[in-house]
């Protein structure tokens, strides 16, 4: 993190537009390496995305302020305002999906990025084809419709998939898209235990080969902070040691 001042962003939220076609979808690629920007732009443009690039965090935030993209591919190691600062600023104002890029392989960096609200994390060097696939997958799951159960009601908890609204003890609680999808998925099958791999497959349309399983752990922890009376002793999102997680109504 640095002391460089970041431009203020307008308060905006992700919309519900259909993502059946890539044409017209705006992706912002932020990286200080010209080669990375060029290669990623080429692959995403080939898939029909409209790509804008930035080589530093200040420029990236200015672009987001002027016209919110549909997704951001964001390098962690940026000059001036670094990627995690950009992510934190973006996430405080909107739910735009963010995929982090980093040469760092340390798990703590991945976890920090996920805790700040990143939707995915790709370690350099990476396959541009894989990154393009992840962009499509993240966009699809961000706009996924509610599913079979439009409203789930439990004691002290109401989950409305149609409006994507959550009430905890009759009080509205706002969740980022992936946290809402995860809660809805588990709550749709009360008491059924799901492994992290199964959750990745159903909620993230991915697997452990493409997505870090710690993504699930981080999102579960963040959800507990918002829906559990005592997050340290959860009674709704329960860990089944050695297996995975279940929702107890």
Your description of this structure?
- This protein is 36% helix and 19% strand.
- With 249 residues, it is of the alpha/beta class.
- It folds into 2 domains: 117 residues, 3-Layer(aba) Sandwich (Rossmann fold); 97 residues, Arc Repressor Mutant, subunit A, CATH 1.10.10.10.
- The strands form 3 sheets. It has a 5-stranded parallel beta sheet, with helices on both faces. Strands 6-7-8-9 form a 4-stranded antiparallel beta sheet, with helices on one face.
- The termini are far apart.
Strand order of the largest sheet: 2-1-3-4-5
How many helices in DSSP terms? 8
CATH class of the largest domain: Alpha Beta
The protein's oligomeric status is single chain
Secondary-structure class: alpha/beta
Number of domains: 2
Let me know the average pLDDT: 83
Q: Which outline best applies?
A: elongated
* N→C terminal distance: 41 Å
Q: Give the biggest sheet.
A: 5 strands, parallel
Radius of gyration: 18 Å
Strand content: 15-25%
